[in-house]
């Protein structure tokens, strides 16, 4: 059973879907891994590394023509032409509806398995790519904030004087938010965090941060551990109540996102105007409009003296570890997709497993 890994074609994407360690594990199970030449170079994995792990180095079209193709990001239209009819494509599809790429893949009867659709159940935790990549994003966001902030994050005492710890506020306490809290605490910052889901208070405090508790008149707890969108009235109350807390912050990391919806506005321009000169906002929701309307996607800008960072692909900035985590997710997924019969790998019925059934991107009716 052949698995193809093609070089990522999305602009600026440095990750690769399988690392040499993952190739070694999958080859040992009986898969034949075909890696496009140079596919892992941006993530610091050489063709020699892959060859030593048991992979076959192939051309771009050959990797795309395998029976199972694994990618970080979905292909472009030109790449779809190289996909084999009736094949399986596994990647982050980055869409909430249909688009021309998915439609073109469906015309070739390609089974599309979206890594975003991994259900949040115990059995699927080791395959949860959204969590593994969000974990990295939360860490990297704090490092980026510290690099742009012109002061110390921890308390610093010297014979020449002392500096108070920076006040860091984390908005949104999902996987990225929790990692951001932990990282900021390790760097010695004074950390506060807020989430519309009341059950996160205990998690915030367990990491040594202080929970910001606001009464907005309704809960933001949604299904599957995700937040749900607040009513317009609750959003207005939330913005007003948050304003004073945010205006005192030196660094704000925003992670509040709602699946398939524009990011909620948490930091208004009026709040930015009140923040201290040189403060930093890292907006992890920049790709879906941003938690601050002044954020510009994939840019670092200064507005009202505040530095706003809108990078939309932090995992790609740490490609080696991001790829290793993602490859682990893919490996665990592939392991549940096959059985071994008479020494040969046999693909299971994907509709009969709750994980692979939920992952399938079907035509919209």
Secondary structure layout plus pairing:
Layout: E1 2-5, H1 20-29, E2 32-36, H2 47-53, E3 56-58, H3 60-64, E4 68-73, H4 77-80, E5 88-92, H5 100-107, E6 111-114, H6 129-148, E7 156-158, E8 161-163, E9 167-171, H7 175-186, E10 190-194, H8 201-206, E11 210-211, H9 232-247, E12 251-254, H10 269-274, E13 280-283, E14 300-303, E15 306-309, H11 314-317, H12 319-337, E16 338-341, E17 344-347, H13 354-359
Helix pairs in contact: 1-2, 1-12, 6-7, 6-12
Highlighted features:
365 residues; alpha/beta; Rossmann fold; 2 domains; seven-stranded mixed β-sheet; six-stranded parallel β-sheet; 17 strands; 34% helix; 19% strand; elongated
Number of DSSP strand runs: 17
Broad structural category? alpha/beta
Biggest sheet features = 7 strands, mixed
Radius of gyration: 22 Å
Query: Residue share in helices?
Result: 25-40%
CATH superfamily of the largest domain: NAD(P)-binding Rossmann-like Domain
């Amino acid at each position: 059973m052949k698995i193809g890994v093609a070089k990522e074609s999305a602009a600026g994407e440095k990750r690769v879907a399988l690392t040499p360690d993952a190739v070694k594990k999958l080859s040992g199970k009986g898969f034949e891994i075909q890696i496009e030449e140079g596919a892992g170079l941006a993530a610091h994995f050489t063709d020699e590394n892959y060859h030593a792990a048991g992979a076959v180095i192939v051309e771009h079209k050959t990797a795309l023509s395998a029976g199972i193709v694994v990618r970080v990001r979905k292909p472009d239209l030109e790449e779809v032409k190289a996909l084999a009819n009736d094949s399986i494509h596994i990647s982050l599809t980055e869409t909430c509806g249909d688009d021309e790429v998915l439609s073109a893949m469906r015309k070739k009867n390609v089974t599309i398995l979206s890594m975003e659709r991994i259900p949040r159940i115990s059995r699927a935790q080791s395959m949860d790519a959204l969590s593994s990549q969000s974990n990295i994003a939360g860490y990297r966001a704090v490092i980026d904030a510290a690099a742009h902030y012109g002061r110390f994050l921890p308390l610093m005492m010297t014979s020449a004087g002392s500096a108070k710890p920076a006040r860091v506020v984390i908005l949104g306490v999902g996987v990225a938010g929790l990692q951001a809290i932990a990282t900021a605490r390790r760097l010695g910052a004074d950390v506060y965090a807020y989430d519309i889901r009341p059950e996160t208070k205990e998690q915030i405090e367990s990491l040594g941060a202080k929970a910001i508790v606001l009464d907005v008149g309704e809960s933001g707890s949604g299904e599957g551990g995700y937040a749900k969108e607040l009513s317009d009235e609750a959003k207005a109350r939330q913005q007003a109540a948050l304003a004073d807390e945010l205006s005192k912050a030196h660094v704000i990391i925003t992670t509040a996102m709602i699946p398939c919806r524009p990011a909620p506005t948490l930091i208004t321009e009026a709040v930015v105007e009140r923040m201290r000169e040189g403060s930093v906002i890292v907006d992890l929701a920049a790709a879906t409009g941003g938690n601050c309307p002044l954020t510009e996607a994939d840019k670092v800008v200064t507005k009202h003296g505040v530095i706003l960072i809108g990078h939309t692909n932090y995992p790609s900035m740490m490609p080696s570890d991001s790829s290793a985590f993602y490859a682990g997710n893919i490996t665990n997924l592939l392991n549940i997709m096959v059985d071994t019969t008479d020494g040969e790998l046999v693909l299971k019925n994907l509709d009969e497993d709750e994980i692979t059934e939920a992952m399938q991107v079907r035509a919209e009716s």
